Amino acid sequence: ILQEVVQGEHESLSYVLLEETGPDHDKSFTVGVLIGNKQISTGMGHTKKAAEQEAAYHALLQLKPDLGE
Questions:
Q1: C-alpha angle 60-48-23 in degrees, rounded to nearest 5
Q2: Global pTM?
Q3: 5-41 burial code (b ≥16 CB/10 A, e <16)
């Protein structure tokens, strides 16, 4: 959904790994969402995918606040 919203505005969307912490068996990842070259949100999770999904959710709430209702 985030990708569709961003592409509709002709911006580039990317995810960047900001931090990886913890031992190998219990990692925690922090990922940022970039629109163009501006970071608009972050997300955390025990997998990179989970962190990306949380970051995308927070980005969507910022871009389309009515989706959270």
A1: 140
A2: 0.86
A3: bbeeeeeebebeeeeeeeeeeeeebbbbbbbeeeebb
pLDDT of residue 49: 97
| Helix runs in the chain, H state only | 2-8, 48-63
Contacts for 48 with CB less than 8 Å, ≥ 6 apart: 17, 29, 31
Residue pLDDT, tens place only, 28-49: 999 999 998 999 999 999 999 9
Q: How far apart are CA 23 and CA 63, in angstroms?
A: 35
At residue 48, what are phi and psi to the nearest 5 degrees? -60, -40
pLDDT at 10: 67
